[in-house]
Amino acid sequence: MLTGQVAVITGSTRGIGRAIAEALLAKGASVVVNGRSREKGARAVEEMAGGDRVLFVAGDVTCQEDVENVVSAAIERYGKVDILVNNAGGSSGFALVADLSDEAWQQAAAWILHSAFWATRAALKDMAKRGYGRIINISSVEGRQANKATASHYITFKHALNGFTKAVAFEYGATGITCNAISPGGVETDLMTETGPAAAESAGITYEQFKDNYAQETAIKRLNTVEEVAAVALLLVSPEGGGFTGANLPVDGGTAL
To answer: The domain 6-188+225-251 belongs to what CATH superfamily?
Structure first.
């Protein structure tokens, strides 16, 4: 289905990004995976076993140069970028607004929003020349609501990412390029296991309670899986998904109203 296409997925050595990369690879695409750790990148390439169709490019998405390098490396290796998945994005330093640090706010802005802008701008230059492209921004259920204390920075920039999605869709829809968002609910990725305990502590609950809160908010009473998110990504990049643009598709088990 995707034979001959090239996909760039930021933050993809594990978690949702890794699941999407593996799904695209299985459908015939060449994939460029990205992460900060060269060790994890090498392990991901080995485990994915895609041969020449998998390339790891190290980089921190809060750094503009690193983000742009991921896209340019893909073009250098494979000649083009057909699919861009802006998956990387998170936050730390959880606190109520009055106590939230400048550093936590600025990090979240770069991690979630600026990184998507930098990667999208770079990829669009190639996509527009060829009149084809599929861009997916991994947003969050928190970008559709605001009911979690101590996470205002995360909530704010996920909302902004949804606006950016619509803006890109409007500007480039007539050129053969689509741009959509996927908003997962609670998914226990490696990132959640790393940052979740701090978020839970800031809210005065345990990490297990933190996870259960997400599960109990859903209609399905469980966390979503990375494979469920990847399945929607596959639809959006498929030929049958060409009619979707500017959309924000929830994979949240019925959480968002």
So the answer is: NAD(P)-binding Rossmann-like Domain (3.40.50.720)
